[in-house]
Amino acid sequence: MQRIVWLLFCREWRLAWRRPGDLLNPLVFFAIVISLFPLAVGPEPAMLRSMAPGVIWVAALLATLLSLDGLFRSDYEDGSLEQWVLSEHPLSLMVLVKVLHHWLVSGVAMVILAPLLGLMLALPASILPVLCLTLLLGTPVLSLLGAVGAALTVGLKGGGLLLALLILPLYIPVLILGTGAIEAALQGMPVTGYALWLGCLAVLSLSLAPVAIAAGLRIGVSE
């Protein structure tokens, strides 16, 4: 089973490098959305600082959503997904590898890029570790929950809008906790509670989402 997991992970990396646009589009979108806000509202540091938590988290949410529609689409179109469903190996484990790869190329990249963008929005340097921590805990939840919607809509043509309608309500708790942690840090208040709740959501999503994704893919492939 370890060999299967490793081979799947290597396969995802090879496919990703063959389609560099799939890697860069969410990150470019994330950076552009945040970069445009200082141009739109003006360079006043106090205003930018007050808007920064919401702007960064909404941009991260939309960038993740942008990359989800094609998460299983190519595997569905070339028949690989059907072979996964028919395989004797646990489907939930195989899709977990795929979602982990998606998070590594999108979520972790956003965490790395976030400090620079936070400075553009006049966030103090002391707040940047909190920003990175919230994104590090929250982006896996975005990828896992989003993969559930991607699995349910994999067999539908033009399912991107339906995917957004299914997933956006589930993203609201992550959005509230992520922005709340940064705002609390800006006010000098403790952020431990927010971080613990985000960690709980990450563990819960990691435990339940792969099973839901596998069930959704079985439904999508059988239709």
UniProtKB/TrEMBL annotation:
Keywords: Cell inner membrane, Cell membrane, Cytochrome c-type biogenesis, Membrane, Transmembrane, Transmembrane helix, Transport. The keyword Hydrolase does not apply. GO terms for molecular function: heme transmembrane transporter activity. The chain crosses the membrane at residues 23-42, 93-121, 127-154, 161-182, 194-217. InterPro entries: Cyt_c_biogenesis_CcmB, Cyt_c_CcmB_bac. Required for the export of heme to the periplasm for the biogenesis of c-type cytochromes. This is Heme exporter protein B. It comes from Halopseudomonas xinjiangensis. The lineage of its organism: Bacteria, Pseudomonadati, Pseudomonadota, Gammaproteobacteria, Pseudomonadales.
